[in-house]
Design goal:
The complex is a heterodimer of chains A (about 300) and B (about 220).
Chain A (H helix, E strand, L loop, with lengths): L1 H14 L2 H21 L4 E6 L3 H11 L5 E7 L2 H10 L4 E4 L8 H10 L5 E6 L4 H9 L4 E4 L4 H12 L3 E3 L2 E3 L2 H15 L9 H11 L4 H7 L4 H15 L4 H10 L17 H4 L8 H6 L12
Parallel strand pairs in A: 1-2, 1-3, 3-4, 4-5, 5-6
Antiparallel strand pairs in A: 6-7
Chain B lengths: L3 E6 L3 H12 L4 E7 L2 H11 L3 E4 L8 H8 L5 E6 L4 H9 L4 E4 L4 H12 L3 E3 L2 E3 L2 H9 L7 H5 L4 H11 L4 H8 L3 H15 L4 H10 L10
Parallel strand pairs in B: 1-2, 1-3, 3-4, 4-5, 5-6
Antiparallel strand pairs in B: 6-7
């Protein structure tokens, strides 16, 4: 218990946030008690992939481990969501490229509905912005299909113990990982803000701060119709199709990081103090309510 | 009866390991080797002389079709086991001497059956055995094997449908190229053909067109 509190103390000072500290404490305590409860019980796994041969093979591999039990299979995102909600699932192994409902959509559905399942993306390929999006949406792990079987087993155990797994290793500092990813993405693409005009950027920021079209119209003294028009252009330029998706896009591509944001004052005082410009903005993360998803899940 | 010896060439370790388990659950099948890389297949086949090579088309360093050219004439019978393949490529592969094509969205049972059929001297195209090369080729040229009825209205090929789906789900040409294991230039070429056939002139227009005509199952944009 002391160790937990010390850890929280250190993390807390780093993050300088009381709310975060409390959430972390709660998460860690729950993760601890969960670990005790789960020790003897098998890990219940659901497989979601559109290729039956891959599913069948994976099931065989998983069942060589006495600790694992495959409780079901799904062939698209929709089935995966339904199965994960109906069956008591510990781990969902989720493919990204599936017909009808895409893996990320399924992920979003499960985490926003608070379904108690830990999700590991198991995919042939993924782009860095998608990794950020998946982690922000609450994925606990990511593993590629060209990984050896033993590493998959290790990833499952790691995620069950409350840690994250990305690629070939466990990740204890998910915030740092997100920063690294965000930094990488930013340096990878030269910044032209996806061809967004200054007004469009302002609207992206307002929208990401949770403003409605009406709010935005009032703030910039334009009609709601004009706001909608801007949004259509923004969607076309960024390639996203929904407001939430756009907010995530803005976060992961650092479109929020401008001195003059023209948006409401943020509720937290620590956000500007230690903020370095080249990092994913934790204040933005927290105020968007996404950070809570990064904390250990409560079953 | 002697066991059927099999080599698996696929770049995904988890797929290979799983498939090995599945095949070895059959008493008459034995996996003697596997490789993730296209440029190792020919050497492996020459040294192990398996009865069957299960070959993915999308392989790093040397594609499955490249492997076929390297293999030349060999006693090993090749079954392509692939996520997707264009009919013209499939016909070409048959002419280069493969004996079967199984898509990865098929059942495990059909993999077993394809191996048995091919060992029996038949050809195996997607879901059934076929006698003789000519019949196999004509099965691939038959209209019903070129995808759904809706796509037929605009004479889109199977590969064009795959590209269309990818465009509609917002993928960039580069991503599509990787997904389909073709060059970016080829993707552009497909997109141009799709534009010509549908009359659309931009990706957005194409997306709306596809949704309106039921070519994709994606719900309308918000």
């Amino acid at each position: 218990m002391n160790i937990i509190l010390t850890t929280i103390g250190v993390t807390g000072r780093l993050l300088r946030s009381k709310a975060l500290r409390m959430a972390l404490t709660l998460g860690l305590l729950l993760a601890e008690s969960e670990k005790r409860n789960k020790k003897s019980q098998p890990i219940r796994i659901l497989i979601a992939d559109d290729h039956p041969i891959f599913r069948d093979g994976l099931r065989r591999l998983l069942e060589t481990e006495p600790q694992f039990v495959v409780i079901g299979e799904a062939s698209d995102g929709d089935e995966a969501v339904k199965a994960a909600k109906e069956l008591k699932t510990d781990i969902l192994l989720l493919d990204l490229n599936m017909p009808r409902v895409h893996g990320l959509e399924a992920l979003k559905d499960l985490t926003t509905s608070g379904t108690p399942v830990r999700i590991i993306l198991l995919t042939a390929e993924i782009q860095k912005p998608q990794i950020v999006e998946a982690l922000l949406l609450g994925a606990s792990g990511l593993i590629m299909k060209d990984t050896p079987t033993q590493l998959l087993f290790k990833a499952i155990r790691t995620v069950m113990s409350g840690e994250y797994w990305i690629g070939r290793e466990s990740v204890s500092d998910i915030i740092q990982t997100l920063r690294d990813l965000a930094y990488f993405i930013r340096t990878e693409r030269r910044k032209d803000n996806f061809g967004l005009t200054p007004r469009e950027l302002e609207i992206v920021r307002a929208l990401s701060a949770g403003d409605t079209n009406k709010d935005i119209a009032k703030r910039f003294s334009i009609s709601e119709q004009t706001v909608k028009h801007h949004l259509t252009n923004i969607f076309n330029k960024t390639g996203v199709s929904q407001r939430l998706e756009l907010a995530l896009f803005a976060l992961s591509h650092n479109l929020m990081d401008v001195e003059n944001t023209n948006t409401k004052e943020r509720p937290l005082s620590w956000q500007s103090a230690g903020k370095r410009r080249n990092e994913l903005d934790l204040a933005e993360l927290e105020s968007s309510g996404l950070l809570s998803k990064l904390l250990p899940k409560t079953h | 009866m002697a066991k059927t010896c099999i080599v698996i060439a696929d770049d995904h370790a988890l797929f290979r390991s799983g498939l090995r388990k599945l095949l070895e659950s059959q008493p008459h099948l034995s996996v003697v080797g596997e490789t993730p890389s296209g440029d190792e297949v020919a050497t492996l086949v020459k040294s192990l002389k398996p009865d069957i090579l299960l070959l993915d088309v999308c392989l790093p360093r040397l594609s499955g079709l490249g492997v076929l050219q390297q293999l030349g004439s060999s006693s090993t019978r090749v079954i392509l086991l692939t996520a997707n393949i264009e009919n013209s490529d499939a016909i070409q592969a048959l002419q280069w001497g493969i004996h079967g094509i199984v898509l990865k969205n098929a059942t495990t049972e059909s993999v077993f059956r394809s191996i048995d059929a091919v060992m029996d001297g038949q050809y195996w195209i997607f879901s059934r055995g076929v006698e003789g090369l000519d019949n196999a080729v004509s099965r691939l040229s038959a209209p019903e094997s070129t995808g759904k009825t809706q796509s037929g209205r605009f004479r889109l090929t199977q590969r064009e449908m795959v590209v269309l789906h990818a465009v509609v789900s917002g993928r960039a040409n580069k991503e599509i190229a990787r997904q389909c294991c073709i060059s970016e230039q080829t993707v552009k070429h497909h997109v141009t053909n799709i534009f010509n056939k549908t009359g659309a002139s931009s990706r957005l227009e194409l997306t709306l067109f596809a949704i309106e005509h039921g070519l994709v199952e994606t719900p309308p944009l918000q």
